[in-house]
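Data card: per-record layout.
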Amino acid sequence: MLDIGFWELILIAILALVVLGPERLPGAIRSVVSTFRSIKQTANNLKAEFNHELRVNELHEQLKQAEQKGMMNLTESEKKAVSELEQAAHDVNQIKNNLNSDNKSNQ
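The structure for this 107-residue chain is written out next.
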């Protein structure tokens, strides 16, 4: 990521100690660590969302191909995509039914 060696880190630490002083340095370090952590988490979330969208697009394309064939003589990847989408639809319906039954029992 960053190509910083040991001596560069020592120099940065000494400069931070001189500029911020020993009282404010621990707070500044916590702030920097917190900022880097949130940036990393945001990047990981964006990456996961991007991968999910790519997968959804791929499944959508395979479903289009399967529909064009009239759901007959499907390739293995098309069969897998259809079954994966059927499973996802089943899971969504199950969650919906659970939510509806929870709402009815709360009323």
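Known properties of this structure: Residues 22-106 form one domain. The helical segments are 6-68, 76-106.

See the next section for split statistics.
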